[in-house]
Amino acid sequence: MEEFLESSFQFIEQSGWLAPLFFVLLHVCRQIFFIPVLVICLLGGYLFGTVYGSIYSIIGLTAVSMVFYGLIHIFPSVRGKLTKIKKRLLKSKQVSVPQMMVMRLMPFVHFHLVSLYLMESTKDFKTYSKYSFLVSIPPAVVYTAFGDMIHELPLAGTLVFASFLAILFLFFRKKRTNISWDEFFATKKS
Hints:
The mean pLDDT is 81. The protein has one domain. 76% of the residues lie in helices and 0% in strands. By secondary structure, the protein is mainly alpha-helical.
């Protein structure tokens, strides 16, 4: 994967005015190589800066969602598997568009799991495309801005920033136990 990313990075960097097109295609092809969205968006910030990198990432993420919509209809077994994962991981049936935007910002939530939620909450391809575009904005802007910022920071600043994010991540994690009403008030049988 590292070799692929490095060669893609060099190819895009040297391709001149076609670089945005190749970058969007990299977004679409990233699933094949199991490259996280975060890495590609960071690369966009590094190569194109925050504004243009965000625009290209939004286009790329929306294109990925549209390709997913088509593939999920061609391969219904994949939809069944994703639905099982969705039911196991996320119990909530109703998720709003702002909640999906936040879910897309979380790097550990699978990109296509959110796309599945979008498919289930929209009635047609046009509505799905519009919501896919909206839901793609937060991760594209945030991750691309980080990529641009990392490009501008010296190595020591990047390491300090990465350490700070890791500490923040560990500090804000929650542990909680959910007990249903029936379990809480269940009577013991002797």
